[in-house]
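A further point concerns the way the authors explain their paired sequence and structure data. Each protein is reduced to its one-letter sequence and a matching series of backbone shape codes. An entry of this sort, consisting of the sequence and the corresponding backbone structure tokens, reads as follows:
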Amino acid sequence: MDTTRLDNPRTPAFPGGRRMPFREHLRELRNRLAKALLFVFLGTVAGWYLHPWLITELTGPSCHIPGLHGIAPATPACPNGLMVLQGVMAPLTFTFKVALAAGVVISSPLWSYQLWAFAAPGLHRHEKRYTLGFVAGAVPLFLSGAGLAYWVFPQALRILLGFTPGSFSNFLQGDQFLEFFIRMILVFGLSFEMPLLLVLLNFAGVVSAGSLLARWRTLVLLIFVFSALATPTGDPLTMMVLAMPMTVLFALSLAVIVWRDRVRTRRAGSAALSPDEASSLDLTPSQIKVPAGSGD
């Protein structure tokens, strides 16, 4: 019997229980990263073929803001002339960045699995279950946040560009526009996953429902402060659009944590009353009453 794994159950091993040497760790990491980069490359190729549609969907809401006119000539795709690419290499660079961003999103399930496959051998069974649950919940939450950012993005641009004086025109460079948009997508998407992180920390035993309930007002205030600092636009509308869903998600995660702690407490109480455990006996002697008329 091989007892190598009994010393450290977290030690990743080959099939059969052999401990993986450090050199094999590096080789495994290299192979996983190579596969992840290959999947990103294939996704970027797919994004390159989709880039006309992606660019139209990306710039369309901003190109149709009423009452706003840029310095570029009007085109059928951008009638207000707001979008500008400056420089000889700018069109190619902008197209490649759009294709690369699309490739990362398209291939995200594949390269995420490679990272998971590298880390999974070092986790306990319950840790794997919690991590898989976190990944399963993180994907739809991130997409929901990204969708909300895509919806509010033209509204935020309308507010910010509305401060342009009437005697001036404005324009958005392609690189700056794309960087601004991706930053907003990431901020909204990652912010929607923070309540899920609280649930994961509770399942891991790091935070409890009592500590969160005692500080819920402070945590809600911190959500609004974070929303004001994290949103790229900095306007009150975008801050509220981010802060309100985060507050709702925090309340839902707090409800899950309270339920989880109650279940954990109930199970702990049930485990303390094992049916196989002998109950304690009361050995205190009791006084015996003698019946009347017994003659004693």
Remarks:
- Residues 9 and 172 are 55 Å apart (CA to CA).
